[in-house]
Structure formats: structure tokens, C-alpha cells
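Weekly puzzle thread! Below is a chain. First person to post its structure in C-alpha cell form gets bragging rights.
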Amino acid sequence: PDAYRLYLKGRSFLVGNQQEMDKSIDCFQQAVACAPDYAMAHAGLAEAYTTQAYLRAVDRTVYVEKARAAVMRALELDPDLAEAHAALGGIRFFFEWDWAGADTAMRRALELNPGSHAVNEGYGYFLAIMGRVDEGLALLREAARLDPLSVGPVHDLGIIAMVRGDYEEAAAGFRRAIDIDPNWTWG
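Winning reply:
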């Protein structure tokens, strides 16, 4: 239970300001220390390192290698963990530019756990960026439905609306995200 609590806390800080992202990594590291065989904590750590590497001016090589190590450990512990496959897809997408490999990993994640808001969010964002906007939006909306207290999918929906030039929808989405979390930095 302590590792799971730390995992959830880590997810809540996953995308925010720098201090929040650092807290996210710290929470996932604590969860791994508390329960070294908890695959979900390793998958969360992989996602956090990936997020740090693409959103932050850090030594990306170091963070990407940490992300790869964490995702491989998660898959070693649980080869059927959807969140680990989604994290692998993120690494392939953002750092290896292996679009087909990312799609395969994320599709597998969705097959393994279609009820995961994190999987729906990650795959939805990927699909939208790859030009499959309608498919991506459907998954992002599902992610927001599955976890109505998560800012991430609402933020992604706002970003995609902004890119499409629908500024009213984007502003409404960002306002919804601020309603969910009034301290949300990106809002």
C-alpha cells in the first residue's frame, strides 16, 4: 500500500513545474525502494525520466538511459504491464524516432489495459502528433473520462485544440484543467 500511494503521488506530479517533476521522480524512487519488485513503480519512473528528458534542459542522454533501464526492469517484472509498454512507446517516440515501434508498444499497452487513463493519454497524444488526430482525440477524451481528476489529458486536449486553431476550445480546456488543479503551473 505504501508503494502504491507513492506511485499515485508520483503520477500527480508527473507534469508540472520543475519542482513538481523532481517530486515525481522522488516519489517513484521511493516506491521502488519500498517495493523493489513493484513493476508499476518502475514504469512510472520510466515515464517520469522520459518526461524530464523532453521537457527539461537536462542531459537527455542520462535521463533517457535511466528511462530505458526503468522500463526494462518493469517489463522484466511484469511483461504484460500496460503502463510499461506505454512507457517504452514514449521512449521510442520521443528519443528513438521509431514511429512504428512506438505505435506497436502503445497499441499493445491499450490492448493490455484499455481502462488505464495513462495508456489512453499517452497513446492519444502520440496519435494526434502523428496526424491521426481524430483517433488521438477519442483516446484523450477517454483518458479524461477514466480519471476526471487528472490534468494531463485535459491539458493535451487543449494543446491539440490550440494547434488546430480552435482557440476557444483550447482556452476552455485550459480553464477546465485549472478547475481540476488551481495550482497547475502550465494552466
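Puzzle host: Confirmed. Bonus trivia for everyone else. Residues 60-77 form the longest helix (18 residues).
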